Sequence to fold (518 residues):
Amino acid sequence: MQNTQAQNKIESEIVDLLVIGGGVNGTGVALDAATRGLKVLLVEAEDLASSTSSASSKLIHGGLRYLEQYEFKLVKEALREREILLKKAPHIIHPLRFVLPHAKHLRPTWMIRIGMFLYDFLAGKMSLEKSKKITLKGALKGESLIDDFTVGFEYSDCRVDDARLVVLNARQAKEYGADILPYHRCLEVKKENGIWQALIEDKNNQTFTVKAKAIVNAAGPWVAKVIHDVIETDSKSNVKLVKGSHIVVPKLYEGDHAYILQNKDGRIVFALPYGFSAEKENQFTLIGTTDLNYQGDPRAVKISNEERSYLCDLINEYFKKHISPKDILWDYSGVRPLYDDNAKNLSKVTREYHLELEDDKGKLPALSIFGGKVTTYRTLSKHVVDKLAPYFSDLKDSQTAIIPTLGGDASSFDDILTKITSHYPWLKADHTYRLAGSYGTLCFEVLKKANGYHDLGQHFGSNLYQVEVDYLIENEWCYSVESLLWRRSKLGLLVNESEKASLDAYLKQYLNQNPLIL
Fold:
């Protein structure tokens, strides 16, 4: 899918680092390496964030429940990262208050108090509001719950647009000189003449060869397959594939807070606000996740009827408004590639990442990533490049802790909203809010010199217009309706079938007229 001129350029070069995998870890590594002066090429077999990285609970969080597994190091790192990422990306990462209704028969009050105190303590100095005990009876945060729940606890974490985080990292890596090739599969990698030689196939089944000094295997659920079938090395580590499913239903409660719900089996499930505009921030409720062993193709993962019932039943134990599988508007499933630490209970399998590095007598390193989570992607990426530092002279220090995420160069989300409203006062409030939450200050690249809705081109439903579609095609490797509605814009629940057909026809026409974009 890459045009011939660009492909010839890549084939003629020797890149420092070939990254296999376009999820949050792969794009994070590409960005960290590119900002430190390495020549990077990233290849992804499908769309960016098309697998695990767009199937998360959409949270930047320390992982309160991991305290029970004594994962103090992981929680501390995640909480410190939460603060860094909130400052780096105020457009796509936002504070979120969580309510934990106290179920007396599951965990005693004293245990929850200690957990909340420890959670705040491990976070260190933070900008978010600290945890506290609250009264639910007679309060907004309790009115949607059944009468059994009279007290609860409240703490802070953050929500994130996971797929946009991936795409913005990829775009930013490109600005620092990286080549990003979605829809390009790495077929094989061999050592020839003192260099890695990688055979790459595009979506049209055309192949070309890339030369690289080092390889990072960030293939997520396919990490073991890449090790054994592509790089063909012996791995000392194993990956445990864990399926997690989410459902979206009409909103269960008023307010912009979330709930963390305890189940009798020891697991917890989130009920999260899921919406797209200032006036209707909580149009829907996102519920998840499940935890199940998974075998098979990660691309074919789907929610089961048992998972649907499991999530609905848990909600019905807490909320006055009951739901059933027929109320589900949308569901999605992902496969988490956890590092296999031989834990028998899935909920106790470590969420810490594991890096495995192999080389050939001090040359030709190949590093594989096991595990990880969205919250710690940046530190994982930094550690990956740090481990490769001995193979590259004059490698710069990591910059990603201080460089704003693309579009996040503002003091706060409110600052972004103010700038956009001032520049485009004619935009409707819900449209402004969505654009700000997707693009941040990049809105000025999306809308350019538009002076009114008449300048935005064809309307595709909701508040999606031609200028935004063109921008996504030209700048964010967005070539399908699925990519645009479910990953780039999150408008899939708001656009009807007729509007989707119109959008699909426009995309195909645009790409036919501009084949070099592909």
The first helix runs from residue 4 to 12. Residues 89 and 405 are 5 Å apart (CA to CA). The chain has a mean pLDDT of 93.
